[in-house]
Amino acid sequence: MASSGSNTTNQDHALQVIKKYKTYVDMIAEVNIPDESKLNAAQEISENFEVIIVSPHYAGFLEFAIPRFLQFLRDGEPQFIAEGVVQQLRKLILEIIHRIPTNDHLRPHYKNILTAMFHLLESENEENVLVCLRIIIELHRQFRPPMQSEIQHFLHFVKNIYKELSNNIKSSFEVVHITATGYLAAEVNGGATTTPSAPSTTVLSSPNQATKTSGDLTMAAKGGQQQTVIPKAVTSLKVLAELPIIVVLLFQLYKQNVLGEIREFIPLIMKTIVLQPSMKARNAPSFNKEVYVDFVAAQIKTLSFLAFIIRAYQEYVNNFSQNMVGGMLGLFRYCPQEVAHLRKELLIAARHILVTDLRNRFVPHIDQLFDEDVLIGSGWTARESLRPLAYSTLADLVHHVRSHLPLQHLSLAVHLFSKNVHDESLPVSIQTMSCKLLLNLVEGIRKSDEQGTVSL
């Protein structure tokens, strides 16, 4: 009897706890409640969310809370001031939704959540959309929903962002197209760069909020206080860097349904990876290095997207091989030296692309990759951590195209990989690989020497 009474007491307590948090949800949904009180209610839910999850009434809480959360997000206006109470509230609600475990309790609600998240992408700010994207990824991975019209709409949305990238980025710095050899035109011929276009701006949610540049958090003065202006998601480089991951996931889930749509990304990818800030922009005192790092990150993520789909569209990609080669070489040359993780992603993407027959397109310019400042960069972290990956990637390329290399390029390969054999700081596996490659190069060197092209 005592045990039965204890269980009843525990159940009553659990029910009272859930009722309390349902009251907080009601406060958030209530129009007449002050925003500060709504934020406090959301913070209470967030701080005690683990208590809610283990409650026997958790499923009922989700059924009660999720429609109200989504309604609040749909009905509210997007905010672009980070310190604003409403912005903090909207972001916190999205983070709560993201924290909901993707199990059977969530299954009845995931379609409504996805619909709401896709809806928010086009209007919300950068911070909130980054959370939306994480929710979209997690729900698709876990529940694998059937193909819906939102998927097609999302792919069109992403394509439009790529189409507008060159215009949006001009609000931060002037961009030019890189040459087919991976250099900025001004470095090749000393020519003048193009005239900067008028910067694009993002309209904020109220007239007294300052406009802002894409991909940048700027400070706006209001009432003597500094306020952080958040970019709109459609102009955000951080958002653009996350979009390829979702497109790849959708390609995996709905391959037969989206083959044509994904094919249309390839010209956009090629136009994206050949963009670089002009020499004039780089040398300007106002050049924003942080925005540039975000820009390069978005480009490398885009190249990784290409690396993932390249086998399915290899013949079509071949039509854009000049842009692909120039863009990749440009990314190696101009990738910021201090951001080693981006160069690692670039090397991994390059490795996947170079295992295809398109590697032959790199033969005329392979000498650039023998320059370690281009391949690995001059940053200390990159030098310490990326040399094995870089050398193995280059060795694979050289091995497969060795019969097409002139003696001059074979000489560069011999010099680099002979040096690696004697470099005790490299793993033994890389030294062994270098020895094997040198043996494989002997035949090519002999043939070139017989032809009397160049002497070593």
From TrEMBL:
Q: In this entry, which stretches build a coiled coil?
A: none
Record GO biological process: DNA repair; regulation of DNA-templated transcription
Please identify the protein, giving its name as recorded.
Transformation transcription domain-associated -like
Q: According to the UniProt entry, which residue ranges have a biased composition of type Polar residues?
A: 203-214
Do you know which SUPFAM superfamilies this protein is assigned to?
ARM repeat
- May I have one GO cellular component term? NuA4 histone acetyltransferase complex
Q: Where is this region: Disordered?
A: 195-214
Matching InterPro entries, A to Z?
ARM-type_fold (IPR016024), DDR_Repair_Kinase (IPR050517), Tra1_central (IPR046807)
Question: Which species does the entry assign this protein to?
Answer: Paramuricea clavata
The source's domain of life comes to: Eukaryota
Q: State the signal peptide span.
A: none
